[in-house]
Amino acid sequence: MPDHKRVDGDTDGGSRSSDFLKSNEEKIKLYQYWYSKSTIEAIVRECEDVGEKVAFLSTPSVYFSLDEKSKLYKNSVLLDFDKAFDRAPGFVFYDYKKPNDIPNHLHHKFDLVVIDAPSVRVHKSSTQTIWKK
User: Fold this and answer.
1) What is d(CA 114, CA 58) in angstroms, rounded to the nearest whole number?
2) 45: burial class by Cβ within 10 Å (0-12, 13-18, 19+)?
3) What is the DSSP letter of 64?
4) What are the distances in angstroms from CA 10 to CA 5, 18, 28, 39, 71?
5) pLDDT for 65
6) Cβ atoms 65, 15 nearer than 8 A
7) Residues 48, 103, 68, 49: what is their CA dihedral angle, to the nearest 10 degrees?
8) pLDDT tier for residue 12 given thresholds of 50, 70 and 90
């Protein structure tokens, strides 16, 4: 099992998940919706327990809730469309409409992938076309 610091919150009652939620508003135009604090923390704990190198696909709330000093954070990547997150050392631009446009050097490099499927609000036939890609 990986040896990582757990994200159960700081002694003052705060946590990295709370910090993320307070400082990042959801962008409705990007269909961006955050998990709840408890869900973020549960996913982070699971990643810390089983992962050493994780790909966070459209899950910035989870990625930014990792301990920035941890090996897990340093070894992981955030694949996301929102370039506002490019401040992260592991940021890789990702467009779900081009699912195969992931850099070759990232193929087969992760022991865990955390995915939040995009919220697609289109006609059923268009949704089927997108998911066939």
Assistant:
1) 8
2) middle
3) T
4) 12, 10, 30, 17, 19
5) 92
6) yes
7) 0
8) very low
